[in-house]
Design a protein that fits this description.
11 strands; four-stranded mixed beta sheet; single chain; Rossmann fold; alpha/beta; 18 helices; 504 residues; five-stranded parallel beta sheet
C-alpha cells in the first residue's frame, strides 16, 4: 500500500521507551501489548527490527513474500547485528524464501561493490582523507585487495600493526578503511583503547566475566561487538599498553579468527580486519623518516639543477648557463625551482599537481635491525608478531604535506567562524609556511592543530572580546617576519585594516 518496508523499529524496551516518552514503565508495557502484540516479550528490545524481522519471527511466509516483493532488504540488520533470517524457524517455508532473496541481494551487492572498487580504488578513497603516508596507504590497500578478491587465506583474519608517532594518521586510516568497506555503518568499526586493559583482571572487560562473577550476563566489550558484526574493522589503539594476558587472548583471535566469550559461546570472525596501533619505536621511525626525507629532497634538488641546463641546450641557446653562472656563482638560478604561492583569494592549499613527491620506502635492514628488536623486547613473544600480516610504518610529514595540513586546519576554522559568528576568515600564502614551522615530529598533525589555535584562534578570540571584531566582519591573516597578524574588514568597508591587539 506504499509503506516503506525497511523502516526500523525504535522500541528499545519498556524502561528506555518510558524515559523517552515521559511515561511510567507499566503504562508503556500496557500500551505495547494493546497496540502491538500481547504475545511478545514487552520488556525486550526490538530496536532496529524491520517488518521482515517480525515476519520471520511470526513464521508468516505470506507476509514475508509481500515484503520481499515490495523491495524489503533481507540483509538489513537490527541493533544486535542480526538479519531477519536469524529469527526464522529451521526448517520452514519462510526461512527458505528469505534465504533465497538474501543470496540474490548478496550477489547483487558483491557485484556492485566490485564495480565500485574498480572505479574508485581503496587508495583513491584513503588519499582523500589521509595527508601523505603514501607507502602506508599502498600497503594496507594491497592487503585488503587480496582479501576482497579471494587471494588470501580464508582461515585467518587480516591483522595490521601501525607504527609511528602520535598524530600521524594511524587511527584515521583505520576509520577510513572501515568507512570504505562497510559504507559508514557505525557497528562495523570497533575501537578499543588498550590503555584501559593494563591490569590482568581486565581481560574480563574484553571477553566477559566467567560464570558466577559480577557482570557475567553483560558479556565483554569485544565479544558483544563482534557478535553484532563479525566482519567489522577492529582497532586496538595503543596495544603496547595492554597487559600480557590480554595479548594472549588476541593470539587465538588473530590465528584462528575465533574467540570464546565468558559464557562459552564461540564467535567466528575470520572476515574481520584487526588493526593495532602503537608508539613503540616511534622516535627511531621518526628520525629514520627525516633522514629519508632529506635524501629525497637532495635527489629532487639534483634533478632540478640538471633539468634547466638540458632544456636550454634543447632550445638551441648554448652557453646561457655559463653566462648565468657569472651572476649566480654556485647558487641556483631563479628559474631552477618553481615554488607555488597563495594569496588571500587562493585557499585550495598547495598545488601538488606537478612533480609528485617521491614515495619513501622503509628498508628491510631498518625493519629487522632496529624496529623488530624493540617489538620483540616489549611483547616478549615471536608467536604474537608472527600473526601480524603487515607492519605498516607511518613517517613524518614532508614540508608540502605540512602546508596541506595547515590549509585544512584553517579551512576548518573558517567554516566554524562563518557558522558560529558570521565572520569570514581568509589568509595569505605566507601564513601557511609560518604556521607549518610549528610542526613537532613527535606530535604529528596535533602540533599543527595546536599551533593554529595558539597563533590564530587566540588572536581572533581576543579581537572579538575587545570589540575589534563583530558579526559580519572579515578577517585576513597576514605574515610578517614569521609572525601572524590580523587585519579586519568591517561590514561596510572595502579594505582590510590591520589591528594591533596590544593597543586595544
Amino acid at each position: 500500500m506504499g509503506a516503506r518496508p525497511d523502516l526500523q523499529e525504535r522500541y528499545s524496551g519498556a524502561a528506555m521507551a518510558a524515559a523517552a516518552a515521559g511515561m511510567h514503565p507499566l503504562e508503556v508495557l500496557q500500551r505495547r501489548e494493546d497496540e502491538f502484540c500481547s504475545t511478545m516479550n514487552a520488556r525486550a528490545s526490538f530496536l532496529g527490527w524491520t517488518a521482515l524481522h517480525y515476519a520471520a519471527l511470526a513464521d508468516s511466509s505470506g507476509a514475508a513474500r509481500e515484503l520481499l516483493e515490495a523491495g524489503a532488504d533481507p540483509t538489513a540488520r537490527d541493533h544486535a547485528g542480526r538479519r531477519a533470517l536469524h529469527y526464522a524457524r529451521d526448517p520452514s517455508p519462510t526461512r527458505d524464501l528469505i534465504l533465497t532473496h538474501t543470496r540474490t541481494w548478496e550477489e547483487a551487492a558483491a557485484a556492485a561493490a566490485a564495480e565500485e572498487r574498480r572505479r574508485f580504488p581503496l587508495e583513491q578513497r584513503l588519499k582523500q582523507f589521509i595527508v601523505g603516508q603514501q607507502a602506508a596507504i599502498e600497503t594496507v590497500a594491497a592487503a585488503v585487495r587480496r582479501k576482497e578478491n579471494g587471494w588470501a587465506d580464508d582461515e585467518h583474519p587480516l591483522v595490521f600493526l601501525f607504527l609511528g608517532s602520535s598524530g600521524i594518521g594511524k587511527t584515521e586510516l583505520a576509520k577510513q578503511l572501515a568507512r570504505y568497506m562497510h559504507r559508514d555503518d557505525p557497528a562495523a568499526f570497533i575501537r578499543l583503547d588498550m590503555s584501559e586493559y593494563q591490569e590482568k583482571h581486565e581481560v574480563a572487560k574484553l571477553i566477559g566475566a566467567p560464570p558466577g562473577y559480577v557482570g557475567h550476563e553483560e558479556g565483554g566489550q569485544l565479544t558483544r561487538a563482534l557478535a553484532r558484526r563479525s566482519d567489522a574493522v577492529v582497532l586496538f589503539d595503543e596495544v603496547d599498553k595492554a597487559h600480557p594476558d590480554v595479548l594472549t587472548v588476541l593470539l587465538q583471535l588473530f590465528d584462528e579468527g575465533r574467540l570464546t566469550d565468558g559464557k562459552g559461546k564461540l564467535i567466528e570472525c575470520k572476515n574481520a580486519i584487526f588493526v593495532m596501533t602503537s608508539n613503540l619505536a616511534a622516535d627511531e621511525i621518526a628520525q629514520y623518516g627525516l633522514q629519508l626525507r632529506r635524501e629525497a629532497e637532495a635527489r629532487a634538488a639534483q634533478r632540478v639543477r640538471v633539468t634547466p641546463a638540458i632544456s636550454v641546450e634543447q632550445r638551441g641557446v648554448p652557453g646561457l648557463m655559463d653566462i648565468l653562472s657569472l651572476f649566480y656563482g654556485d647558487k641556483e638560478p631563479w628559474f631552477s625551482l618553481s615554488v607555488g604561492s597563495h594569496d588571500a583569494n587562493d585557499q585550495d592549499g598547495p598545488d601538488e599537481s606537478n612533480d609528485p613527491e617521491e614515495s619513501l620506502e622503509v628498508s628491510r635492514n631498518f625493519k629487522d635491525s632496529v624496529v623488530r628488536p624493540i617489538l620483540k623486547r616489549h611483547f616478549g613473544r615471536d608467536e604474537f608478531l608472527g600473526r601480524i600480516n603487515e607492519i605498516v610504518y607511518f613517517l613524518p610529514f614532508s614540508r608540502q604535506e605540512l602546508l596541506t595540513l595547515v590549509n585544512m586546519e584553517l579551512k576548518l576554522w573558517a567554516e566554524k567562524a562563518s557558522a558560529r559568528h558570521a565572520v569570514e576568515l581568509r589568509w595569505e600564502g605566507g601564513v601557511l609556511g609560518a604556521l607549518a614551522d610549528g610542526y613537532d615530529v613527535h606530535y604529528g598533525a596535533r602540533s599543527i592543530k595546536h599551533e593554529v589555535e595558539r597563533r590564530v584562534v587566540n588572536q581572533i578570540a581576543l579581537a572579538a572580546e575587545r570589540g575589534a571584531l563583530a558579526r559580519g566582519c572579515g578577517v585576513l591573516l597576514t605574515e610578517r617576519a614569521g609572525r601572524v597578524a590580523l587585519a579586519v574588514r568591517r561590514p561596510h568597508d572595502a579594505d582590510y585594516t590591520p589591528i594591533d591587539l596590544a593597543a586595544l
